[in-house]
Design brief:
Distance between the termini: 12 Å
Shape: globular
Organism: Chlorogloeopsis fritschii PCC 6912
Keywords: Phosphoprotein
Number of helices: 5
Order of helices and strands: EHEHEHEHEH
Strand order of the largest sheet: 2-1-3-4-5
CATH superfamily: Response regulator
CATH topology: Rossmann fold
Helix content: 40-55%
Number of strands: 5
Number of domains: 1
InterPro entries: Bact_response_regulator, CheY-like_superfamily, Sig_transdc_resp-reg_receiver
Pfam families: Response_reg
Protein name: Response regulator
């Protein structure tokens, strides 16, 4: 397995437990490198310096929420091309469409099943195994 194929994912979520579950799931099931951030501000800094292949972004966060964070990512030429998936507890179909219209690649509903997470991410981003 060469270094070229290892995906690097940035997980931005204010809940430690959620970050840990996602990190463990993606590293164990897919062998991806997982970076984590506990806030939108921290996530923006990591995204700029580390240039992850994708970002998983929690919608509901204190201070800067997921949409505000996403808007900042989109406003920055360094990070605007990074595909972003929103994690959301309230993913109504109408809201999902609204997020897609904004440029989000997809949404994953909370609570998610850890074992299905990799599959969902691959489907949203069209990544083969």
């Amino acid at each position: 397995m060469c270094a070229m194929t290892t995906k690097r994912i940035l997980v931005i979520d204010d809940e430690d437990g959620v970050r840990e579950i996602i990190q463990f799931s993606l590293e164990a099931a897919a062998g991806w490198d997982v970076l984590t951030a506990a806030s939108g501000t921290e996530g923006l800094a990591i995204a700029q310096t580390q240039q992850p292949d994708a970002i998983i972004l929690d919608l509901m966060m204190p201070e800067m929420d997921g949409l505000a964070t996403f808007e900042q990512l989109q406003a920055n030429p360094v990070t605007e091309q990074i595909p972003t998936i929103l994690l959301t507890a309230k993913a109504k179909v109408s809201e999902q469409q609204q997020f897609i219209d904004l440029g989000v690649k997809g949404t994953i509903a909370k609570p998610f099943k850890a074992l299905e997470l990799v599959k969902q991410i691959r489907e949203i981003l069209n990544w083969s195994e």
